[in-house]
Design goal:
By secondary structure, the protein is an alpha+beta fold. It contains 8 helices and 7 strands; from the N terminus they run H-H-H-H-E-H-H-E-E-H-E-E-H-E-E. The protein folds into 3 domains: 102 residues, no CATH class; 59 residues; 147 residues, Histidine kinase-like ATPase, C-terminal domain (Heat Shock Protein 90), CATH 3.30.565. A hairpin with a 4-residue loop joins strand 4 and strand 5. Helix 1 runs antiparallel to helix 2, helix 2 crosses helix 3 and helix 7 packs antiparallel against helix 8.
């Protein structure tokens, strides 16, 4: 028992000396010198412990060759180098765990903020669908009543009524577009296989009157079937085709074509080409922002929400939308959609 206690105390003191040397490495930065010192302390201590143990048992210590001393010293140095490398690794792991926890908490906060934002957006949609539109309906109804009595009013009063009704109509369209924009995510429907040929023909049928009035030739080439939300894709086609019909060059024979190209990674590009008035490509990103207009209201109507709605629809389908254009030469809207829905 006594021998074991002495041997254990000796070993503890040797490693304490090595620990002190490691501490000095950290404080002074003289790493290599203190590694040698620590290795020597550990090696010498172990030798003394073994020698002392053998003497207590009445045995003669085995002599150690100088080469063996050197080898043992090298081994000790390597062991201490490993210890020195492991200590920062433990610290790095601890820091990584803290960073992961910090990022996880941050993601949870972002998710909660996003959930709250969506709830506020839904509340806004409810307000826009009733509280804002109801007063507008009354303005338009009473405006119609005044208009029926316009024969008894002077020209200036009739002009005021007409302006009021036009402003109310614009505001109603604006609110409806804003409501549609807000519901693209909050009131989204499940994805399903959608035949884009059917969508194109349906939209062309809905726009038949305008197509006839503007005498536009609309050509639809073979389009693919993609996983999408039918209502939103219909809205996408309708907004882009409506734009193409609106911004036509009166001097040219208007033409619109819709075609598709299969590209890499299972994606499809749907190209909407027209020979309308076009625009400077420096505005190619700006036109997809809400409420952005490149032309005055007197020249072309609209709220500036149509292409913003298109972008939001395409974003929700994990796709992209871009445009190339030249003034007086027309525009090409390029919509890229995945053939299969990407699981997130």
């Amino acid at each position: 028992m006594f021998i074991t206690l002495i041997l254990g105390t000796s070993i503890v003191l040797q490693f304490a000396a090595a620990g002190l040397a490691l501490y000095l490495i950290k404080v002074t930065g003289k790493r290599f010198a203190w590694i040698l010192i620590s290795s020597a302390i550990v090696l010498m201590g172990l030798r003394r412990s073994v020698t002392f143990y053998l003497m207590l048992r009445g045995e003669k210590p085995v002599p150690v060759e100088p080469a063996a001393e050197i080898i043992a010293l090298i081994i000790s140095v390597l062991i201490l180098l490993g210890v020195i490398k492991i200590f920062p690794l433990f610290h790095l792991i601890k820091n990584s765990e803290n960073e992961l926890k910090k990022h996880r908490d941050q993601l949870i906060r972002y998710a909660n903020d996003l959930k709250r934002s969506n709830e506020e957006l839904q509340n806004f949609a409810s307000i826009a669908s009733h509280d804002l539109q109801e007063p507008l309906r009354k303005i338009m109804v009473f405006g119609d009543r005044l208009n029926r009595k316009a024969a008894n009013l002077d020209d200036q009063s009739q002009d005021y009524i007409e302006r009021m009704q036009k402003a109310a109509s614009r505001m109603q369209v604006f609110i409806e577009d804003l409501l549609l924009f807000s519901r693209l995510t909050t009131k989204a429907m499940p994805f399903q296989p959608v035949n884009l040929n059917e969508i194109a023909q349906s939209v062309i049928g809905d726009l038949e009157t305008r197509i006839s009035e503007t005498k536009v030739e609309v050509k639809v080439n073979d389009l693919p079937v993609v996983e999408a939300e039918r209502f939103q894709i219909t809205q996408l086609f309708q907004n882009i085709l409506s734009n193409a019909l609106k911004y036509q060059e009166k001097e040219n024979a208007p033409r619109i074509s819709i075609e598709s190209v299969k590209i890499e990674d299972g994606n499809w590009q749907v190209l909407f080409k027209d020979n309308g008035i076009g625009f400077d490509e420096k505005y190619a990103e700006r036109i997809f922002r809400p409420f952005e207009r490149l032309h005055g209201r007197s020249a072309y109507g609209g709220t500036g929400m149509g292409l913003a709605i298109c972008k939001k629809i395409v974003d929700r389908h994990n796709g992209t939308i871009a445009v190339t254009s030249k003034p007086n030469e027309g525009s090409t809207f390029i919509v890229t959609l995945p053939e299969k829905r990407t699981k997130v």
